[in-house]
Amino acid sequence: MLIDIVTIFPEVARAPLSESIMGRAIDSGLLKLRVHDLREWTTDRHRKVDDEPYGGGPGMVMKPEPFFRAVRELRSGGGGATKVVMMTPGGRRFEQAIARSYAAAPGVHLIVLCGHYEGVDHRVTEALVDDELSIGDYVLTNGALAAAVFVDAVVRLLPGALGDERSSEEESFAVGEGLLEAPCYTRPAEFEGMPVPEVLLSGHHGKIAKWRAEQSRSRTQQNRPDLIGEPESPH
Ligand code: ADE
User: Fold this and answer.
1) How much is the pTM?
2) Are residues 131 and 194 in the same domain?
3) pLDDT tens-digit profile of 185-200?
4) Whose CA is nearest to atom 7 of ligand 1?
5) How far is CA 141 from CA 8, 61, 116, 186, 193, in A?
6) 33 bridge partner residues
7) Pick from 18, 19, 131, 204: most CB atoms within 10 A?
């Protein structure tokens, strides 16, 4: 899968994607990741990427020209279908089902654009962007972290990215009807007076599956009641 990230903070996007599973996906050729500095596509001496908003108001708006140049150049180098994603708190909420749909199309060249400041000139969104994604209802200082989150969530779902394929099938949000995962334990069987639940040591697969299903349900009720159609508890 070919992914280009365009940001004014390339190191912020690059660092989390160079470790562990992502690093392995790159080494094995499953992922070709290129992180670009948007300023490469400025033409002025100051490499200016933002300007004051029309209509007034605080903050700066990112200029359209560098984004247009970047997308045109990257598109022409990809060879094949391209999708342009903009990371923005104003996008649709990114979730596992969206990650799965991107991972199901590994032949598509993804160009991920990151905003900063108060926003990005809307002509970029209108003319270039296929999908606007928000990683949650909070505002980050820039989209580079959000891009790393998006890419990580997609790439780990590519066949062969994880050592054990079952890990991505059984985890939270992929369990049956969308419940959270049951708690898990490893050795030692007792640690500082806290024993591992007896049933997990029993070797009885039916009982273990039942225990996990119950735990999934109660954990979901406790932490994410919205997933099972119940009102969220007050904070
Ligand atoms: N940029 C700033 N905040 C963001 C968010 N929550 N999701 C995606 N991009 C962002």
Assistant:
1) 0.91
2) no
3) 999 999 999 999 999 9
4) 134
5) 12, 13, 7, 38, 44
6) 3
7) 131
